[in-house]
Amino acid sequence: MAESAVVNRKRSGTDDVVSENDGKRKNVVAPDMDPAAALALTRHEFGEHGGVNMSIEASATFTVMEPETLCRMFTGELGPDRDFFIYSRHFNPTVLNLGRHMAALEGTEAAYCTASGMAAISSVLLQLCSSGGHVVASTTLYGGTHALLTHFLPGKCNISTTFVDISDLESVESAIVEGKTNVLYFESMANPSLKVANIPELCRVGHAKGVTVVTDNTFAPMVISPARLGADVVVHSISKFISGGADIIAGAVCGPASLVNSMMDLHDGSLMLLGPTMNAKVAFELSERIPHLSLRMKEHCHRALVFATRLKKLGLKVIYPGLEDHPQHELLKSIANREYGYGGLLCIDMETVERANLLMAHLQNDAQFGFMAVSLGYYETLMSCSGSSTSSGMTEEEQKLAGISPGLVRMSIGYIGTLEQKWSQMEIALDRFQEKQPLV
Questions:
Q1: Which strand ranges, in their side-by-side order, compose the sheet holding 408-412?
Q2: Annotated region Disordered: where (predicted)?
Q3: Domain limits of the chain?
Q4: Which of 221, 278, 277, 224 is nearest to 102 (CA)?
Q5: Is the distance from CB of 287 to CB of 248 less than 8 angstroms?
Q6: Cα 186 from chain centroid (whole Å)
Q7: DSSP per-residue codes, 113-129
């Protein structure tokens, strides 16, 4: 289609409108810019009557003044870059504004926001792969993504996946079949193992073989910027850190304008035709939260590092990329954005599911340290035993290959209360645990 989803521009009558064809861009952030600085440079959308917050465009459909205009819109001659909208399953002004911020956050040319993270992931893969297509993916992925690649895509779409240890670049290179493989897919910080991807090297390998590199950055917004390191497409479950409230389900696809526009094509676009549309009211809510994402991420990461360090000193088996003994600690230091820390999640390996469940029960029910719940990025600490929850769809062998032990407790560290208050609650739970069996 002719309309462009390129971000960092105003609509008609302004000075930073750009189409894919004119090659001129203004007010575009530098590729290596700090994510918070990039967000601050994006246009602030004011309300219809001059409000400091934008108005919500809640319309499902949009009117035109002349019948010929509608025809020109459906041919792609007129589009949202010139303030022409057809239907909110296609483009909506409020959702488009959120996409502008997501693109700035990740340093991509464009972004489109979806109804969920899985909608973003599945739509990208279906757009990039046809029947007979092939994906090379990390052995360690979110359980829903793993199920999509293992069961749904092969069975329903004839798209196969080869799973590899992405830390072994030779295995990645060997798994990519030139002329057949379409996508190299991995998470910047793996769920739940917290293995850090060597994004620059993986992109080098993937691009040398002519494949599109897609990275899920849900675990590390602000901390890592995959597109700035070479990734072609970045996907998110906005439901997590970016939302921060555990009250919204949403996702995003960040990448080249050409890809986003192809996904919104009226004839064969996966987003347009499958319809995982974000509601404008949800987009408004999220647009109001992104400006303080950097502050929240810094506190998530700071507390995670403090707790990981203290727990390790107590002798617990702690997995956290901020610890010097983490296998990818130096790698993360070399690719992370400065000042944002090492991520807001840590894992404690309690070895068995029984010990994991006992610890979580004490943490929630005796000490009020956090909640036993899936998801992450909430202001309260959320914890779950991954092998028996979000990764339970994987076989025992698949979990072993993914580095998921039966007793792996994944914790998304919140920032409510004071740090020392929460640490005292942690100590209470550990003492209660030790009354029943040895802690380590």
A1: 318-319, 345-349, 408-412, 381-385, 370-372
A2: 1-27
A3: 292-436
A4: 221
A5: no
A6: 11
A7: EESSHHHHHHHHHHHH-
Distance separating alpha carbons of residues 390 and 191, to the nearest angstrom? 9
Question: Smallest Cα–Cα separation from 321: which of 338, 302, 345?
Answer: 345
Decide: helix, strand or coil at residue 18. Answer: coil
Q: Strand, helix or coil at 29?
A: coil
Residue found under tokens 């917290």: 194
Other beta carbons less than 10 A from residue 204's beta carbon: 15
- Rounded CA gap, 90 and 97, in Å? 14
Query: Whole-angstrom Cα distance, residue 45 to residue 221?
Result: 23
- Residue 251 half-sphere exposure toward CB, CA atoms < 13 A: 21
- Residue 132 scores a pLDDT above 60: yes
Query: In angstroms, what CA-CA distances link 135 with 46, 162, 233, 387, 420?
Result: 42, 6, 14, 24, 46
Residue 385, strand partner residues: 409
pTM of the model: 0.91
Q: 106: number of CA atoms within 13 Å, CB side?
A: 35
Instruction: Classify each residue of 407-437 as buried b or exposed e, where b means 16 or more C-beta atoms within 10 Å of its C-beta.
Output: bbbbbbbbbebeeeebbebbebbbebbeeee
First to last CA, the chain: 60
Fold annotation for 292-436: Aspartate Aminotransferase, domain 1 (3.90.1150)
> Which tokens in the block code for residue 32?
């290596």
d(CA 255, CA 345) in angstroms, rounded, equals 26
The rounded distance, in Å, linking the Cα atoms of 309 and 169 is 30
Q: What tokens appear for 198 in the block?
A: 């060597």
- Residue 255 phi/psi, 5-degree rounding, is 180, -160
The partner residues of 412 in beta bridges, in order of sequence, read 345, 382
Tens-digit pLDDT profile for residues 252-301: 999 999 999 999 998 999 999 999 999 999 999 999 999 999 999 999 99
